Amino acid sequence: MIQLLCRNRVADFDQWWSVFQSHAGAHRASGLFLVSLWRDAADPDNVFFLFDVEDQERAKAFLGDSGAAEARKESGVLEGEFHFVSPSESEGY
Fold first, then answer.
1. What are phi and psi of 23, to 5 degrees?
2. Which pLDDT score is estimated for 89?
3. What's the CA gap between 90 and 9, in Å, rounded?
4. Is residue 27 part of a domain?
5. Strand 77-85 to strand 46-53: parallel, antiparallel, or no bridges (unpaired)?
């Protein structure tokens, strides 16, 4: 399974969270299903989140869409990154 690991440094978590939640339907329509969300213990405006990815190409199209860019701006994302990841063969480590 492919997953999407994201990090956003935001100006204000509450503002970011409000916009993020309002786009839940767009995430699901793009084949992205939120698994977990974390905030850095020392810097709570540094947010990490993980999606299960139904279709990587559809997810990439969503991330590159002008609507997603506008949502990042509206939510106060200062910087961010994302990585498509898959499980390693580390079972039993």
1. -105, 15
2. 76
3. 30
4. yes
5. unpaired
The helix-helix angle for 66-75 and 56-64 (nearest 10°) equals 60
In the DSSP assignment, the letter for residue 47 is: E
Q: Which residue has the tokens 């200062």?
A: 78
Strand partners, 53: 32
Expressed as residue numbers, the domain containing 43 is: 3-85
Q: What is the pTM of this model?
A: 0.90
Contact (CB, 8 A) for 6 and 51? yes
Q: Tell me what pLDDT residue 93 has.
A: 65
Query: pLDDT digits over 27-85, tens only?
Result: 999 999 999 999 999 999 999 999 999 999 999 999 998 888 899 999 999 999 999 99
Q: What would the two tokens of residue 14 be?
A: 């509450």
Distance of CA 76 to the CA centre of its chain: 14
CATH code of the domain covering residue 72: 3.30.70.100
- Residue 91 domain-assigned (yes or no): no
